[in-house]
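Ligand-bound model needed. S-adenosylmethionine.
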Amino acid sequence: MGLSKEDVIKNYDREGQDYDRIRYGRSSGGAFFSEVELSKTLRMMKSGSVLHIGTATGRVSAHLIAKGFDYVGLELSKVMANITNSRINGHGSIICGDAEHLPFKPNTFDNVVSVRSFHFLPHPENFLREAHKILKPTGRIIVSFEKKIHGREIFRKLMRIPASKVERIHYTNSHVASMLRDYGFDILHKGNVTKLPLLVYWNTDRDRLLRKVHNRMPSILGTVGVVVGQTSHCGLSNPFNSSVGCVRDHTTGYSEGYDLLDSVRRILLKHPTFIRVMFPLFNSYRRRWNMASLTESSAMDAILTGVSGAKEFEEKGMADAETLKEFVSPNSTVLDLGCGIGRVDKYLSTYCQRICAVDVSDRMLYLARRRLAGFKNIEFYRNNGHDLSEFGDGTFDFVFALLVFHHLEKNHAKTYLHEIFRVLSNGGTVYAQFPNKPSEQFIKAQAEKRIYDVARTRWYTEEEVSTLLHQLGFIAVATSLQGSQIVGICKRVLV
Ligand SMILES: C[S@@+](CC[C@H](N)C(=O)[O-])C[C@H]1O[C@@H](n2cnc3c(N)ncnc32)[C@H](O)[C@@H]1O
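Prediction:
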């Protein structure tokens, strides 16, 4: 059975006024859930206007109107739309319509909010595309949904809980974040709304204990997720989360394991004692990246923040190799600076004679060697994190550095570029990425949070990159914006 809008309409037309009683009115735990959901889901909204998708009986609508938002609600079920309309009593407007076909002009709303209705959409990509269009620049999208939890179905059967009347897709937080990113949103937040399975709230009659412990609990058992995205100033995505190419993953090989790992990491990284004690221990590039690559999956996540799994990681490696292959020939000798686990080398190696893959981290190189054991034309080198002294002058026809310079102090990046100039042959080309400088406030906010981290992002402007490359003696310098990255491509010619 697939997702069906008719089933959604039938179900909600039938539930009508009973909707709230079945859920939030069923126990004091249900009422507490409603408070948690409203505060956690809606706290990252911007002031101004909001399009609210899936109003049901108007619980969220009334809350948003009371908070002063300029409110428009859109609801698929006519019965629900009518109930909400009478509840809001003229303070905003309600439209009966479909989230996948939004009848609004571009640049209309400051926020689009969908509270636990995203999982009913047969074509969520249509909704995301439309939402992006109707949002103003730096407008926010807030999507909450029921999460994919291993063992959900077994648990349901064991507890003899009746199956849901309406089919839905359960998502992981990373999956939804990845979908939002594919449709041009920067991810501002992904996490759990609830801290416990929904049934625990529904079935709690005395909420006093629940309220007492709730704030102190971690959220890894939560079954409702939320992702907040923002349309960027100038159509760029968030440099924290991107690589060169962007391949949409239509199949869903997403694993819940990522969310669990993510949750543990988040909890630790929020803990001031952990940060104070641990980060000074990882204050060199080598230690920092060794720590990030304890396992292959944590290495993948550190290399492409928020990547949804191995499949997407490989696809992005392949896409980046496709971009780079035009700079090499079957005779080329290539240097990959900051190779990580050889994401791109794996696919680029078929187009050139030899790749020297260099990295400061032993762990990254260990994983890379293990992954690419059968690739005879890739050699791995551990360097000192500052220069390319392993290689003689003029050794390489092509040098590339993807997602590396933004993790380095600017003077170290400059030294590396100087070294690249030295090891390039006459007429050789360098292809390097630098993260494009977004707004000052954004940089400041990120820097404040990550000041302790040697690998935090250092931002560049296009002019800065271009001047730097010229100063170092490169010629035919071309810089361009590709997604969130400034790509500098230039040549070395002996004078
Ligand atoms: C975000 S990952 C990118 C990996 C790879 N370029 C890719 O796109 O898949 C950054 C890599 O740069 C390496 N790195 C960080 N600082 C370095 C330095 N000072 N010298 C050499 N490599 C460094 C890290 O160990 C890590 O493998």
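The CA atoms of residues 70 and 269 lie 36 Å apart.
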